[in-house]
Amino acid sequence: MPSTFRFLLGILLFFFFWAETLHAFSVTSPTTRRTYWTTTRLFAVTPNQIKFLRKEAAQRLARKSLSQVFLPDQEDGMMMTSSSSSSFPAIWEALQQHELVQIRGISRDNIRHVYVTAQQMVLELNYFMSTKTRTQVELIETSGHSALLYAPADPPRIILRSSYKEGQWTKKPKKPRDHRGQIIQVEDL
């Protein structure tokens, strides 16, 4: 029963998590039995920004400067996402200091559950961090039993470029039309 619930929770998160805006829905964590209500996201990372963050993580990993948090072993093999866990404050501190953090040791018993577990961990981290700051955590990628998380600091140290400009796309005014829907040609006199 719990594995079926996790699978269904994963499907639900897959459809709603990456949307630009989330409509009000509740997610109940199987480990903490808490219900989280999510309405809208404060920011969304675009695919180009995700590419940039992956490159940044690869460069930091090559320089051995990528911050990594190792999750403790679980005796029963359950998913490691309990907000009462001692690892959540460590993850929060690492995200505040470095903005880009790799979490190691997610769902060690089954690699198929890593993505769902990482998404659930992001939801619980957002709930955990919402009491302290308005910063949102984003899941950038999962690889093996690890996940890459991003949360912008205040002020941000990693500058994410965007092609969005305020008022860039404005609606073109419609030409005047007659009662049949034909465009009225204005004649110069």
Explained architecture:
- With 189 residues, the chain is an alpha+beta fold.
- It has a domain of 105 residues: Translation Initiation Factor IF3 (2-Layer Sandwich), CATH 3.30.110.60.
- The protein contains four helices and six strands; from the N terminus they run αββαβαβαββ.
- The strands form two sheets. Strands 3-4-6-5 form a four-stranded mixed β-sheet, with helices on both faces.
- Strand 1 and strand 2 form a beta hairpin.
- It is elongated.
- The protein starts with a helix and ends in a 39-residue tail after the last strand.
- Keywords: Signal.
Please supply descriptive tags for the structure shown above:
single chain, 189 residues, alpha+beta, Translation Initiation Factor IF3, 4 helices, 32% helix, signal
Global outline: elongated
Alpha carbon gyration radius: 22 Å
Strand count, sense and barrel status of the largest sheet are: 4 strands, mixed
Q: What's the number of helices?
A: 4
Q: SSE order in H/E notation?
A: HEEHEHEHEE
Layout: helices, strands, pairs:
Elements: H1 2-17, E1 25-28, E2 35-38, H2 47-62, E3 67-70, H3 87-98, E4 100-104, H4 114-130, E5 138-143, E6 146-150
Write a short abstract of this structure:
Residues 1-24 form the signal peptide. The chain has helices at 2-17, 47-62, 87-98, 114-130; strands at residues 25-28, 35-38, 67-70, 100-104, 138-143, 146-150.
